[in-house]
Amino acid sequence: MSQQAGYSPSFKRPAEIMRMRRKRSRSDAGVFSSPSSQSFTDSPGQSDLSPAGVRPFSPGPLFNSQNRSGGGIKRRNPFANIENTFSPKKKFLIYNDEGNADSNNRNTSTEKEGDEAMSKTDCHGVLPFSAMLTEVEEREHRDISSKKCLTFSEDDSLFEEEEEEKDVKSPLLKSPQAIAPASIAPPVCTEYPSDWSLKTRLLFTSPLSLSWAEHPKAQEEALGLSQHCRAQFSTLPHSLQDPRSCSELRCAFQQSLVYWQHPSLPWISLFPRINAERSFTGKSTPWAQDTVLQQSLMSEWSVSLSSLYSLLKARLCPYFYLCSYQFTVLFRAAGLGGSNSITALISPTTRGLREAMKAEGIEFSLPLVEERRKSREQQQEEVEEQKEEAQECSELKDEEDCQAGDEGENEDEDGSFSWLKEMGVQDKIKKPDSISIQLRKEGHTVCLDHKPESVVCVEGTHTFTLINFLINCKSLVATAGSQAGLPPTLLAPNAFRGAAMQTLKARSVNVKSQVGSTYQNISSLEITGPILPSSLHTVTSLLRPAQKGNFSATLYTHTPTAVMNTHTTKQPCSGGSVDLSCCGIHPASTQQLQQPSSLGKTALTHINMNNYSYTWRN
């Protein structure tokens, strides 16, 4: 008998097994009383004679169940401890050759297999374990090979083969989730939501090399800049075998890094401007004490801002940003962001700025405040409906007074103090003056200052009034500090009057990342600078074919601009009503930016592409 790993030594002695069997047969003499059974027990050497009602050394049922006599007591299995020496897979195949099991864990066997088992028994009527294992492995291999089905999905995976093997090995564990067809792939998402926030840094990682994105040739850089100025865009194939040798890809990448800025001071970084005093510290600022120089800078800046608005109105420039030391303004052309008119978003704002805009006749809205107010009104309506149903069988007076008091407190009550007279203490309590009452009424507006909820939306012709207001606004430029006398920064994806062409900085690094117990080579690409929405979309569109649809990106957002994704338009844009074919950015980027953003007051933080399908987090 061949020795198996983990096999008990007691099973090497057939004499002990037969002695135990004879003892068992004597105790059950009343049940197994047939002559054939007695002769088999007393004569273990006659292995070619099969008993009438017993399958020798088999845990299965009797061969001839109709000849079984007695009270139906199942005999003891002498090989019960074998369950501890075999894996569940092989044990299942030993006790259940047909792959079925009843609720009492009694497995069935065919007469043919019983005959084969009898023919393979040794001189003592015991089936050798080597033969048993060989037979089990043959049956297992035959079942799996007959049921295995090898099919490939789009990504050449073998999920269907794995499902077939699971069905063969454990048919009792089938569930609707386990037997679901693996060929049904999840829906492919070819685009991520539009993000109107400004990014300060992008970090791309991919298992494939990203070294093609840096060190362009002089001809490739020149061609990329020329294509940007002429608004020419090349079409790339769906997948590139060697991105480093593809000159069109490298030119398009250089084209996507270009943006336009005013003013341009090479020794100072003019973005970001909010909370950027540290970047200006120690730098030369000759305009800080020179009034004439400050007036010259503001005059040139006003011309550039007017030029940008004219391009925006003619739909030759899709959008631009105005970044001051206190707030940021996003101007969008008609047709973008789901709006049918020009829109401007200002964030963050203060009560003083909003009052100054009202004084100039600029109509604006607070989208997040209005959204919160609408949700509160809906909740109040639901509460009122519930109260009305509850008040049908009770008196309403006390609850109405209480509700009226709450509404008066929430909706800026009129300052009535008639309740003091009812208590007789009107002369002992000092009434607040009109200024205190006014401050209390406007308290909820003051608490919005410098918060995302303070974002202001201006639409239509009022955006032109806003341009004049910004040009003449004295508080737009800092009067003290490191940014004193410096006009706001203008950023745009297209050229405008007085602008300087700038390029984002790209740097590629190869690193090793630990995956489990091994290290995997990962290539990274870092892009820094004021990254505009169209630049982000163009770069990801180029990485799609270059990295064969597998890369991930971490996005670092300029926090005050995250709220620019709020959908606030009151004039929804109908599809195809506004022509933006000459706006100067890639048509795919234009199509994405035309859709209303679904991010709310948040921005994208991670983008992942796997097998040409996007996933993202915000």
User: What share of the residues does DSSP label as strand, in percent?
Assistant: 5-15%
Outline: extended
What percent of the residues sit in helical stretches (DSSP H or I)? 25-40%
The gyration radius over C-alpha positions equals 41 Å
The major β-sheet equals: 7 strands, antiparallel
Strand adjacency order, main sheet: 6-5-4-3-7-2-8
Uncertain regions spanning at least 5 consecutive residues:
32-58, 62-71, 89-133, 144-185, 404-415
What structural class is derived from the secondary structure elements? alpha+beta
User: Could you report the average pLDDT, rounded to the nearest whole number?
Assistant: 75
Task: Kindly give the count of domains.
Answer: 3
Helical region count? 19
Gap between N and C termini: 66 Å
The counted number of beta strands is 13
